[in-house]
Protein backbone atom coordinates (compact mmCIF):
# COMPACT_ATOMS: atom_id res chain seq x y z
CA UNK A 1 0.00 0.00 0.00
CA UNK A 2 1.23 3.47 -0.77
CA UNK A 3 -0.27 6.87 0.08
CA UNK A 4 -0.57 9.53 -2.62
CA UNK A 5 1.92 11.73 -0.78
CA UNK A 6 4.50 8.95 -0.69
CA UNK A 7 3.72 8.04 -4.30
CA UNK A 8 4.56 11.59 -5.39
CA UNK A 9 7.87 11.34 -3.50
CA UNK A 10 8.75 8.03 -5.11
CA UNK A 11 7.84 9.42 -8.52
CA UNK A 12 10.27 12.32 -8.02
CA UNK A 13 12.95 9.99 -6.65
CA UNK A 14 12.57 7.80 -9.73
CA UNK A 15 13.12 10.84 -11.95
CA UNK A 16 16.27 11.69 -9.98
CA UNK A 17 17.48 8.14 -10.66
CA UNK A 18 16.96 8.69 -14.38
CA UNK A 19 13.50 7.14 -14.77
CA UNK A 20 11.44 10.08 -15.93
CA UNK A 21 7.74 10.66 -15.29
CA UNK A 22 7.38 10.54 -19.06
CA UNK A 23 8.70 6.98 -19.08
CA UNK A 24 6.37 6.09 -16.21
CA UNK A 25 3.43 7.57 -18.10
CA UNK A 26 4.30 5.45 -21.13
CA UNK A 27 4.31 2.31 -18.95
CA UNK A 28 1.09 3.37 -17.22
CA UNK A 29 -0.74 3.96 -20.49
CA UNK A 30 0.52 0.65 -21.80
CA UNK A 31 -0.69 -1.19 -18.70
CA UNK A 32 -4.15 0.33 -19.09
CA UNK A 33 -4.21 -0.79 -22.74
CA UNK A 34 -3.45 -4.36 -21.66
CA UNK A 35 -6.30 -4.28 -19.15
CA UNK A 36 -8.66 -2.94 -21.81
CA UNK A 37 -7.46 -5.60 -24.26
CA UNK A 38 -8.45 -8.29 -21.74
CA UNK A 39 -11.95 -6.87 -21.44
CA UNK A 40 -12.82 -5.77 -24.97
CA UNK A 41 -13.72 -7.85 -28.02
CA UNK A 42 -12.24 -7.13 -31.47
CA UNK A 43 -13.89 -4.12 -33.15
CA UNK A 44 -15.32 -2.91 -29.83
CA UNK A 45 -15.69 0.83 -29.46
CA UNK A 46 -13.51 2.17 -26.67
CA UNK A 47 -13.96 5.71 -25.39
CA UNK A 48 -11.09 7.23 -23.40
CA UNK A 49 -12.29 10.16 -21.30
CA UNK A 50 -9.21 12.26 -20.50
CA UNK A 51 -8.78 15.02 -17.95
CA UNK A 52 -6.13 17.69 -18.30
CA UNK A 53 -3.66 16.31 -15.77
CA UNK A 54 -1.30 13.35 -15.91
CA UNK A 55 -4.17 10.95 -15.27
CA UNK A 56 -5.56 12.04 -18.63
CA UNK A 57 -2.03 11.80 -20.05
CA UNK A 58 -1.93 8.10 -19.19
CA UNK A 59 -5.02 7.45 -21.31
CA UNK A 60 -3.63 9.50 -24.20
CA UNK A 61 -0.77 7.00 -24.22
CA UNK A 62 -3.28 4.14 -23.99
CA UNK A 63 -4.94 5.37 -27.19
CA UNK A 64 -1.74 4.66 -29.16
CA UNK A 65 -1.75 1.06 -27.96
CA UNK A 66 -5.39 0.38 -28.81
CA UNK A 67 -5.50 0.85 -32.55
CA UNK A 68 -7.02 -2.62 -33.09
CA UNK A 69 -10.19 -1.27 -31.47
CA UNK A 70 -12.36 1.60 -32.53
CA UNK A 71 -10.78 3.93 -30.05
CA UNK A 72 -11.56 7.56 -29.51
CA UNK A 73 -9.90 9.90 -27.03
CA UNK A 74 -12.04 12.68 -25.59
CA UNK A 75 -10.32 15.58 -23.84
CA UNK A 76 -12.38 17.53 -21.30
CA UNK A 77 -11.14 21.05 -21.92
CA UNK A 78 -9.11 22.95 -24.43
CA UNK A 79 -5.71 21.45 -25.32
CA UNK A 80 -3.99 24.74 -24.35
CA UNK A 81 -5.19 24.21 -20.80
CA UNK A 82 -3.60 20.77 -20.36
CA UNK A 83 -1.75 21.12 -17.10
CA UNK A 84 1.53 19.30 -17.66
CA UNK A 85 4.01 19.25 -20.53
CA UNK A 86 4.09 15.48 -20.74
CA UNK A 87 0.31 15.17 -20.96
CA UNK A 88 0.26 17.90 -23.62
CA UNK A 89 2.97 16.14 -25.64
CA UNK A 90 0.92 12.94 -25.56
CA UNK A 91 -2.19 14.81 -26.70
CA UNK A 92 -0.26 16.47 -29.52
CA UNK A 93 1.10 13.07 -30.54
CA UNK A 94 -2.47 11.75 -30.89
CA UNK A 95 -3.54 14.70 -32.97
CA UNK A 96 -0.40 14.63 -35.14
CA UNK A 97 -0.81 10.87 -35.66
CA UNK A 98 -4.34 11.44 -36.87
CA UNK A 99 -5.79 9.17 -34.21
CA UNK A 100 -9.41 9.88 -33.28
CA UNK A 101 -9.27 12.66 -30.72
CA UNK A 102 -11.91 15.25 -29.78
CA UNK A 103 -12.29 17.92 -27.18
CA UNK A 104 -15.32 19.28 -25.37
CA UNK A 105 -15.33 22.26 -23.05
CA UNK A 106 -18.90 22.12 -21.81
CA UNK A 107 -20.62 19.11 -20.25
CA UNK A 108 -23.74 19.86 -22.34
CA UNK A 109 -21.70 18.72 -25.34
CA UNK A 110 -21.20 15.29 -23.78
CA UNK A 111 -23.64 12.81 -25.28
CA UNK A 112 -22.59 9.22 -24.62
CA UNK A 113 -24.92 7.86 -27.31
CA UNK A 114 -22.97 9.80 -29.88
CA UNK A 115 -19.97 7.56 -29.13
CA UNK A 116 -21.86 4.37 -28.36
CA UNK A 117 -18.90 2.84 -26.53
CA UNK A 118 -18.66 -0.81 -25.50
CA UNK A 119 -16.14 0.17 -22.86
CA UNK A 120 -15.10 3.47 -21.25
CA UNK A 121 -11.69 4.32 -19.85
CA UNK A 122 -12.06 6.91 -17.10
CA UNK A 123 -8.94 9.08 -16.95
CA UNK A 124 -10.50 12.35 -15.81
CA UNK A 125 -8.71 12.63 -12.47
CA UNK A 126 -6.23 10.54 -10.54
CA UNK A 127 -4.32 11.32 -7.40
CA UNK A 128 -4.41 15.05 -8.19
CA UNK A 129 -8.08 15.36 -7.21
CA UNK A 130 -9.09 17.74 -4.44
CA UNK A 131 -12.67 18.08 -3.24
CA UNK A 132 -15.82 17.31 -5.19
CA UNK A 133 -15.61 16.89 -8.97
CA UNK A 134 -16.13 20.18 -10.77
CA UNK A 135 -17.66 20.66 -14.22
CA UNK A 136 -17.53 19.25 -16.77
CA UNK A 137 -16.15 16.20 -14.91
CA UNK A 138 -19.11 15.89 -12.51
CA UNK A 139 -21.75 15.70 -15.27
CA UNK A 140 -19.64 13.36 -17.35
CA UNK A 141 -19.18 11.06 -14.32
CA UNK A 142 -22.97 11.03 -13.70
CA UNK A 143 -23.72 10.15 -17.32
CA UNK A 144 -21.08 7.40 -17.38
CA UNK A 145 -22.52 5.91 -14.18
CA UNK A 146 -26.05 6.03 -15.56
CA UNK A 147 -25.10 4.25 -18.80
CA UNK A 148 -24.89 0.49 -18.95
CA UNK A 149 -21.27 0.37 -20.07
CA UNK A 150 -18.24 -1.14 -18.32
CA UNK A 151 -15.81 1.44 -16.94
CA UNK A 152 -12.08 0.89 -16.43
CA UNK A 153 -10.59 3.67 -14.31
CA UNK A 154 -7.01 4.80 -14.59
CA UNK A 155 -5.16 4.72 -11.24
CA UNK A 156 -8.27 5.56 -9.18
CA UNK A 157 -11.94 6.13 -10.08
CA UNK A 158 -12.23 9.86 -10.84
CA UNK A 159 -13.49 11.79 -7.85
CA UNK A 160 -12.37 9.17 -5.32
CA UNK A 161 -9.63 10.01 -2.81
CA UNK A 162 -6.98 7.30 -3.29
CA UNK A 163 -6.02 7.45 0.40
CA UNK A 164 -9.48 7.11 1.93
CA UNK A 165 -11.71 5.67 -0.80
CA UNK A 166 -14.11 8.51 -0.12
CA UNK A 167 -15.62 10.99 -2.58
CA UNK A 168 -16.58 14.56 -1.72
CA UNK A 169 -19.34 14.48 -4.36
CA UNK A 170 -20.12 12.49 -7.49
CA UNK A 171 -17.45 9.96 -8.39
CA UNK A 172 -17.06 7.44 -11.17
CA UNK A 173 -18.48 4.05 -10.30
CA UNK A 174 -15.78 1.88 -11.86
CA UNK A 175 -15.96 -1.82 -12.69
CA UNK A 176 -12.20 -2.11 -12.75
CA UNK A 177 -9.23 0.01 -11.74
CA UNK A 178 -5.69 -0.25 -13.07
CA UNK A 179 -3.57 1.37 -10.40
CA UNK A 180 0.14 2.00 -10.65
CA UNK A 181 3.18 0.73 -8.79
CA UNK A 182 1.41 -0.32 -5.59
CA UNK A 183 -2.08 -0.73 -4.19
CA UNK A 184 -3.72 2.44 -2.81
CA UNK A 185 -5.35 2.38 0.64
CA UNK A 186 -8.66 3.79 -0.63
CA UNK A 187 -9.31 1.15 -3.30
CA UNK A 188 -10.09 -1.78 -0.99
CA UNK A 189 -13.39 -0.28 0.12
CA UNK A 190 -14.66 0.10 -3.49
CA UNK A 191 -16.69 -2.55 -5.20
CA UNK A 192 -14.43 -3.02 -8.21
CA UNK A 193 -11.70 -5.20 -9.59
CA UNK A 194 -8.24 -3.74 -8.81
CA UNK A 195 -5.13 -4.52 -10.86
CA UNK A 196 -1.75 -3.21 -9.70
CA UNK A 197 0.49 -2.52 -12.69
CA UNK A 198 4.28 -2.45 -12.43
CA UNK A 199 5.30 0.70 -14.29
CA UNK A 200 9.05 0.26 -13.92
CA UNK A 201 9.73 2.35 -10.82
CA UNK A 202 12.98 0.91 -9.42
CA UNK A 203 13.02 -0.26 -5.77
CA UNK A 204 15.80 2.29 -5.21
CA UNK A 205 13.25 5.09 -5.63
CA UNK A 206 11.56 3.83 -2.45
CA UNK A 207 14.59 2.63 -0.49
CA UNK A 208 17.02 5.48 -1.03
CA UNK A 209 16.16 8.91 0.27
CA UNK A 210 16.08 11.40 -2.59
CA UNK A 211 14.81 14.84 -3.59
CA UNK A 212 11.24 13.48 -3.64
CA UNK A 213 11.42 13.16 0.14
CA UNK A 214 11.61 16.96 0.29
CA UNK A 215 7.90 16.96 -0.52
CA UNK A 216 7.37 16.05 3.14
CA UNK A 217 8.51 19.58 3.99
CA UNK A 218 6.25 22.52 3.49
CA UNK A 219 3.18 20.47 2.67
CA UNK A 220 0.04 21.01 4.70
CA UNK A 221 1.67 24.09 6.20
CA UNK A 222 -1.67 25.03 7.77
CA UNK A 223 -1.97 21.86 9.76
CA UNK A 224 1.26 22.24 11.71
CA UNK A 225 1.34 23.23 15.36
CA UNK A 226 3.97 25.95 15.46
CA UNK A 227 4.74 27.18 12.00
CA UNK A 228 8.24 25.89 11.55
CA UNK A 229 9.17 24.38 14.83
CA UNK A 230 10.84 25.17 18.10
CA UNK A 231 13.77 23.06 19.18
CA UNK A 232 15.49 22.69 22.55
CA UNK A 233 19.08 21.44 22.39
CA UNK A 234 20.34 19.95 25.65
CA UNK A 235 24.08 19.44 25.56
CA UNK A 236 27.51 20.60 26.54
CA UNK A 237 29.67 19.84 29.54
CA UNK A 238 32.99 18.32 28.64
CA UNK A 239 32.50 19.66 25.12
CA UNK A 240 31.39 23.17 24.17
CA UNK A 241 31.24 23.16 20.40
CA UNK A 242 28.80 20.26 20.08
CA UNK A 243 25.59 21.94 21.29
CA UNK A 244 26.42 25.09 19.32
CA UNK A 245 26.88 23.07 16.13
CA UNK A 246 23.63 21.20 16.68
CA UNK A 247 21.75 24.41 17.41
CA UNK A 248 23.12 26.27 14.41
CA UNK A 249 22.32 23.29 12.18
CA UNK A 250 18.75 23.25 13.54
CA UNK A 251 18.32 26.92 12.61
CA UNK A 252 19.66 26.30 9.13
CA UNK A 253 17.29 23.34 8.77
CA UNK A 254 14.42 25.76 9.14
CA UNK A 255 13.50 25.76 12.83
CA UNK A 256 12.04 29.10 13.89
CA UNK A 257 13.42 29.12 17.40
CA UNK A 258 16.31 27.15 18.78
CA UNK A 259 17.04 27.21 22.49
CA UNK A 260 20.11 25.72 24.11
CA UNK A 261 20.24 24.37 27.64
CA UNK A 262 23.80 23.78 28.82
CA UNK A 263 26.08 24.32 31.84
CA UNK A 264 26.73 28.01 32.59
CA UNK A 265 30.40 28.02 31.49
CA UNK A 266 29.39 26.47 28.15
CA UNK A 267 26.55 28.98 27.80
CA UNK A 268 28.98 31.88 28.19
CA UNK A 269 31.14 30.53 25.43
CA UNK A 270 28.25 29.76 23.07
CA UNK A 271 26.81 33.24 23.51
CA UNK A 272 30.08 34.51 22.08
CA UNK A 273 29.29 32.63 18.81
CA UNK A 274 26.68 35.16 17.83
CA UNK A 275 23.17 36.46 18.36
CA UNK A 276 21.14 33.69 16.71
CA UNK A 277 20.85 31.26 19.58
CA UNK A 278 18.82 31.58 22.74
CA UNK A 279 21.09 30.09 25.39
CA UNK A 280 20.25 29.50 29.02
CA UNK A 281 22.77 27.96 31.38
CA UNK A 282 22.17 25.65 34.31
CA UNK A 283 24.42 25.59 37.38
CA UNK A 284 27.50 23.38 37.56
CA UNK A 285 29.62 22.04 34.74
CA UNK A 286 27.64 18.90 33.87
CA UNK A 287 23.99 17.95 33.43
CA UNK A 288 22.76 16.30 36.63
CA UNK A 289 19.45 15.00 38.01
CA UNK A 290 18.78 18.27 39.85
CA UNK A 291 18.34 20.02 36.46
CA UNK A 292 15.71 17.64 35.12
CA UNK A 293 12.52 19.24 36.48
CA UNK A 294 13.40 22.60 34.92
CA UNK A 295 14.38 20.98 31.62
CA UNK A 296 11.10 19.09 31.45
CA UNK A 297 9.32 22.40 31.96
CA UNK A 298 11.28 24.04 29.18
CA UNK A 299 10.91 21.08 26.81
CA UNK A 300 7.13 20.98 27.25
CA UNK A 301 6.71 24.11 25.09
CA UNK A 302 8.97 22.84 22.30
CA UNK A 303 8.25 20.72 19.27
CA UNK A 304 11.38 18.64 19.77
CA UNK A 305 14.27 18.23 22.17
CA UNK A 306 17.76 17.22 21.03
CA UNK A 307 19.63 15.31 23.69
CA UNK A 308 23.27 14.48 23.73
CA UNK A 309 25.66 16.80 21.88
CA UNK A 310 28.68 17.16 24.14
CA UNK A 311 26.96 16.01 27.35
CA UNK A 312 29.62 13.44 28.20
CA UNK A 313 29.06 10.17 30.01
CA UNK A 314 29.27 10.97 33.74
CA UNK A 315 27.03 8.67 35.78
CA UNK A 316 25.07 11.67 37.05
CA UNK A 317 24.59 12.98 33.52
CA UNK A 318 23.32 9.66 32.23
CA UNK A 319 21.02 9.37 35.23
CA UNK A 320 19.64 12.83 34.38
CA UNK A 321 19.05 11.84 30.75
CA UNK A 322 17.19 8.72 31.86
CA UNK A 323 15.07 10.72 34.28
CA UNK A 324 14.29 13.29 31.61
CA UNK A 325 13.20 10.67 29.09
CA UNK A 326 11.10 8.86 31.72
CA UNK A 327 9.19 12.09 32.32
CA UNK A 328 8.95 13.33 28.72
CA UNK A 329 6.20 12.52 26.24
CA UNK A 330 7.18 14.65 23.24
CA UNK A 331 9.49 14.00 20.33
CA UNK A 332 13.23 13.88 21.01
CA UNK A 333 16.44 13.19 19.15
CA UNK A 334 18.97 11.26 21.23
CA UNK A 335 22.61 11.25 20.21
CA UNK A 336 26.07 10.37 21.47
CA UNK A 337 26.58 9.19 25.08
CA UNK A 338 22.91 9.75 25.93
CA UNK A 339 22.04 6.86 23.61
CA UNK A 340 23.13 4.21 26.09
CA UNK A 341 20.24 4.94 28.44
CA UNK A 342 17.56 4.44 25.75
CA UNK A 343 17.20 0.62 25.90
CA UNK A 344 16.61 0.70 29.69
CA UNK A 345 14.30 3.66 29.91
CA UNK A 346 10.52 3.42 30.06
CA UNK A 347 9.27 6.47 28.19
CA UNK A 348 6.18 7.81 26.44
CA UNK A 349 8.42 9.96 24.26
CA UNK A 350 8.83 9.35 20.54
CA UNK A 351 12.59 9.05 20.12
CA UNK A 352 14.82 9.32 17.10
CA UNK A 353 18.15 7.74 18.06
CA UNK A 354 21.16 8.65 15.92
CA UNK A 355 23.97 6.20 16.78
CA UNK A 356 27.02 5.40 14.71
CA UNK A 357 27.67 1.69 14.51
CA UNK A 358 29.79 1.60 17.68
CA UNK A 359 27.07 3.37 19.65
CA UNK A 360 24.49 1.01 18.17
CA UNK A 361 26.43 -1.95 19.61
CA UNK A 362 26.61 -0.22 23.00
CA UNK A 363 22.83 0.06 22.85
CA UNK A 364 22.62 -3.70 22.29
CA UNK A 365 22.01 -3.57 18.55
CA UNK A 366 23.81 -5.56 15.91
CA UNK A 367 25.39 -4.33 12.73
CA UNK A 368 26.83 -5.81 9.54
CA UNK A 369 29.24 -4.71 6.86
CA UNK A 370 26.78 -5.13 4.03
CA UNK A 371 24.22 -2.31 4.14
CA UNK A 372 21.33 -4.55 3.13
CA UNK A 373 22.03 -6.92 6.02
CA UNK A 374 22.50 -3.92 8.26
CA UNK A 375 19.17 -2.52 7.16
CA UNK A 376 17.43 -5.75 8.27
CA UNK A 377 19.23 -5.73 11.64
CA UNK A 378 18.42 -2.07 12.23
CA UNK A 379 14.76 -2.60 11.37
CA UNK A 380 14.51 -5.47 13.87
CA UNK A 381 16.25 -3.51 16.60
CA UNK A 382 14.12 -0.40 16.01
CA UNK A 383 11.07 -2.63 16.34
CA UNK A 384 12.37 -4.00 19.67
CA UNK A 385 13.15 -0.52 20.98
CA UNK A 386 9.87 0.95 19.77
CA UNK A 387 11.75 4.02 18.50
CA UNK A 388 13.18 5.31 15.23
CA UNK A 389 16.84 4.56 14.57
CA UNK A 390 19.13 6.50 12.27
CA UNK A 391 22.32 4.45 12.12
CA UNK A 392 25.14 6.44 10.57
CA UNK A 393 27.59 4.91 8.14
CA UNK A 394 28.65 4.96 4.50
CA UNK A 395 25.01 4.06 3.96
CA UNK A 396 22.86 5.62 6.68
CA UNK A 397 20.06 3.26 7.67
CA UNK A 398 16.84 4.75 9.01
CA UNK A 399 14.06 2.54 10.36
CA UNK A 400 11.10 2.68 12.71
CA UNK A 401 10.72 -1.09 12.74
CA UNK A 402 8.09 -1.01 9.99
CA UNK A 403 9.61 1.05 7.20
CA UNK A 404 13.30 1.36 6.34
CA UNK A 405 15.10 3.98 4.25
CA UNK A 406 18.71 4.30 3.27
CA UNK A 407 20.68 7.52 2.81
CA UNK A 408 23.68 7.29 0.55
CA UNK A 409 24.87 10.88 0.47
CA UNK A 410 28.05 11.93 2.30
CA UNK A 411 31.75 11.23 2.01
CA UNK A 412 34.78 10.00 4.01
CA UNK A 413 35.73 13.58 4.94
CA UNK A 414 32.70 13.57 7.24
CA UNK A 415 34.36 11.25 9.75
CA UNK A 416 35.73 14.47 11.31
CA UNK A 417 34.35 15.27 14.79
CA UNK A 418 31.12 17.24 15.02
CA UNK A 419 29.27 16.13 11.89
CA UNK A 420 27.09 13.94 14.14
CA UNK A 421 26.15 16.99 16.20
CA UNK A 422 25.11 18.77 13.01
CA UNK A 423 23.01 15.76 12.03
CA UNK A 424 21.33 15.67 15.45
CA UNK A 425 20.41 19.35 15.11
CA UNK A 426 19.05 18.94 11.58
CA UNK A 427 17.06 15.89 12.72
CA UNK A 428 15.58 17.87 15.60
CA UNK A 429 14.56 20.73 13.33
CA UNK A 430 13.01 18.46 10.71
CA UNK A 431 11.23 16.37 13.34
CA UNK A 432 9.60 19.64 14.42
CA UNK A 433 8.33 20.25 10.88
CA UNK A 434 7.48 16.80 9.50
CA UNK A 435 4.73 14.52 10.81
CA UNK A 436 6.62 11.25 10.57
CA UNK A 437 9.78 10.65 12.64
CA UNK A 438 11.00 8.19 10.04
CA UNK A 439 10.56 10.76 7.27
CA UNK A 440 12.25 13.51 9.31
CA UNK A 441 15.23 11.30 10.13
CA UNK A 442 15.57 10.07 6.55
CA UNK A 443 15.54 13.60 5.19
CA UNK A 444 18.01 14.77 7.85
CA UNK A 445 20.51 12.02 7.00
CA UNK A 446 20.21 12.80 3.30
CA UNK A 447 20.54 16.58 3.71
CA UNK A 448 23.44 16.28 6.16
CA UNK A 449 25.30 14.08 3.65
CA UNK A 450 24.59 16.52 0.85
CA UNK A 451 25.86 19.43 2.94
CA UNK A 452 28.97 17.33 3.60
CA UNK A 453 29.36 16.66 -0.12
CA UNK A 454 29.11 20.37 -0.87
CA UNK A 455 31.73 21.09 1.82
CA UNK A 456 33.99 18.36 0.38
CA UNK A 457 33.77 20.01 -3.04
CA UNK A 458 35.51 22.96 -1.47
CA UNK A 459 37.64 21.47 1.29
CA UNK A 460 38.07 17.79 0.37
CA UNK A 461 38.97 15.61 3.33
CA UNK A 462 39.91 18.81 5.15
CA UNK A 463 36.27 19.71 5.72
CA UNK A 464 35.21 20.67 9.22
CA UNK A 465 31.84 20.09 10.88
CA UNK A 466 31.33 23.85 11.12
CA UNK A 467 31.35 23.95 7.29
CA UNK A 468 28.10 22.00 7.25
CA UNK A 469 25.31 24.05 8.86
CA UNK A 470 25.42 26.92 6.35
CA UNK A 471 25.22 24.36 3.55
CA UNK A 472 22.05 22.76 4.92
CA UNK A 473 19.56 25.18 3.27
CA UNK A 474 20.89 24.35 -0.20
CA UNK A 475 20.96 20.66 0.71
CA UNK A 476 17.25 20.91 1.53
CA UNK A 477 16.40 22.25 -1.89
CA UNK A 478 15.44 20.27 -4.95
CA UNK A 479 17.55 21.69 -7.77
CA UNK A 480 15.59 19.68 -10.35
CA UNK A 481 17.17 17.58 -13.06
N1 LIG B 1 2.76 8.65 -9.65
C1 LIG B 1 3.29 8.18 -10.72
O1 LIG B 1 4.33 7.60 -10.65
C2 LIG B 1 2.66 8.38 -11.99
C3 LIG B 1 1.37 8.88 -12.08
N2 LIG B 1 0.81 9.20 -13.24
C4 LIG B 1 -0.58 9.53 -13.30
O2 LIG B 1 -0.70 10.86 -12.86
C5 LIG B 1 -1.84 10.97 -12.05
C6 LIG B 1 -1.77 12.20 -11.20
O3 LIG B 1 -1.64 13.27 -12.09
P1 LIG B 1 -1.82 14.81 -11.68
O4 LIG B 1 -1.50 15.60 -12.89
O5 LIG B 1 -1.02 15.04 -10.46
O6 LIG B 1 -3.31 14.94 -11.27
P2 LIG B 1 -4.71 14.55 -11.93
O7 LIG B 1 -4.55 14.15 -13.32
O8 LIG B 1 -5.35 13.58 -11.03
O9 LIG B 1 -5.50 15.93 -11.80
C7 LIG B 1 -5.20 16.98 -12.66
C8 LIG B 1 -5.78 18.31 -12.32
O10 LIG B 1 -7.16 18.30 -12.12
C9 LIG B 1 -7.56 19.43 -11.38
N3 LIG B 1 -8.52 19.08 -10.34
C10 LIG B 1 -8.25 18.80 -9.06
N4 LIG B 1 -9.37 18.54 -8.38
C11 LIG B 1 -10.38 18.65 -9.25
C12 LIG B 1 -11.80 18.52 -9.13
N5 LIG B 1 -12.34 18.19 -7.96
N6 LIG B 1 -12.55 18.71 -10.21
C13 LIG B 1 -12.00 19.03 -11.38
N7 LIG B 1 -10.66 19.20 -11.56
C14 LIG B 1 -9.87 19.01 -10.51
C15 LIG B 1 -6.32 19.97 -10.76
O11 LIG B 1 -6.02 21.19 -11.33
C16 LIG B 1 -5.27 18.92 -11.07
O12 LIG B 1 -4.02 19.49 -11.30
C17 LIG B 1 -1.90 9.67 -11.35
O13 LIG B 1 -3.16 9.42 -10.80
C18 LIG B 1 -1.53 8.72 -12.46
O14 LIG B 1 -2.66 8.40 -13.21
C19 LIG B 1 1.64 9.37 -14.44
O15 LIG B 1 1.28 8.47 -15.41
C20 LIG B 1 3.13 9.14 -14.19
C21 LIG B 1 3.41 8.08 -13.22
K1 LIG C 1 -9.18 8.17 -13.05
Automatic annotation (TrEMBL):
Its EC number is 4.2.1.136, 5.1.99.6. K(+) binds at residues 55, 122, 158. It comes from the Archaea. Residues 7-207 form the YjeF N-terminal domain. It catalyses: (6S)-NADPHX + ADP = AMP + phosphate + NADPH + H(+); (6R)-NADPHX = (6S)-NADPHX; (6S)-NADHX + ADP = AMP + phosphate + NADH + H(+); (6R)-NADHX = (6S)-NADHX. (6S)-NADPHX binds at residues 54-58, 126-132, 155, 242, 310, 356, 421. Binds 1 potassium ion per subunit. AMP binds at residue 420. Its cofactor is K(+); Mg(2+). GO terms for biological process: metabolite repair; nicotinamide nucleotide metabolic process. Bifunctional enzyme that catalyzes the epimerization of the S- and R-forms of NAD(P)HX and the dehydration of the S-form of NAD(P)HX at the expense of ADP, which is converted to AMP. This allows the repair of both epimers of NAD(P)HX, a damaged form of NAD(P)H that is a result of enzymatic or heat-dependent hydration. This is Bifunctional NAD(P)H-hydrate repair enzyme. The lineage of its organism: Archaea, Methanobacteriati, Methanobacteriota, Stenosarchaea group, Halobacteria.
Amino acid sequence: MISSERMAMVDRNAAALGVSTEQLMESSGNAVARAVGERAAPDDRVLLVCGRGNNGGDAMVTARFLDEFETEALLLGRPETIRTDIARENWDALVESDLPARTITDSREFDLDEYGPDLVVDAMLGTGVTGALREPEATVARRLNAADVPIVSVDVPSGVDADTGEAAGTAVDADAVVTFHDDKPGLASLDCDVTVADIGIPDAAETFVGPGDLLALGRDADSHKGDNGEVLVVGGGPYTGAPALAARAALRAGADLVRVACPVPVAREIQGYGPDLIVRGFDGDRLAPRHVADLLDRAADQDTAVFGPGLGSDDATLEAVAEFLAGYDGRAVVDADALQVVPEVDTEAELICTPHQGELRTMGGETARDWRERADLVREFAGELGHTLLVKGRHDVISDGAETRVGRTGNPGMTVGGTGDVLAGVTGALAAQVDSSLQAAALAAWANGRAGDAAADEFGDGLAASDLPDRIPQALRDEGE
